[in-house]
Write a structure and sequence with these properties.
With 85 residues, the protein is an all-alpha fold. 68% of the residues lie in helices and 0% in strands. The longest helix is centred in the first third of the chain and has 27 residues. Keywords: Membrane, Transmembrane, Transmembrane helix.
Length: 85
């Protein structure tokens, strides 16, 4: 393995575990400690609010998250941009 492969492997496992562990614990103990509850609370919204009540921060966060997730799916799942040089 190259150094980059080691780095990205550690990063991916670490990111997954540092998210999944606390999220599962929060779901089992107090849902107000979950990531989604925290995001909604910081943005001043409530799940189930109509789109007309969303803040610009919420819309921007959703848009950025959508772009990042689509890029990751294309890149990691389908191998798009793999041979891009």
């Amino acid at each position: 393995m190259t150094r980059w492969q080691v780095y990205w492997s550690i990063w991916a496992c670490g990111s997954f575990l540092t998210f999944l562990g606390p999220e599962i614990y929060a779901l089992c103990t107090n849902v107000e400690n979950t990531l989604s509850f925290t995001v909604w609370d910081l943005e001043g919204g409530q799940p189930g609010d109509p789109i007309t009540k969303w803040t610009s921060t919420h819309v921007l966060f959703g848009g950025v998250l959508t772009v990042v997730l689509l890029w990751l799916i294309g890149h990691l799942v389908f191998g798009v941009w793999r041979n891009w040089k």
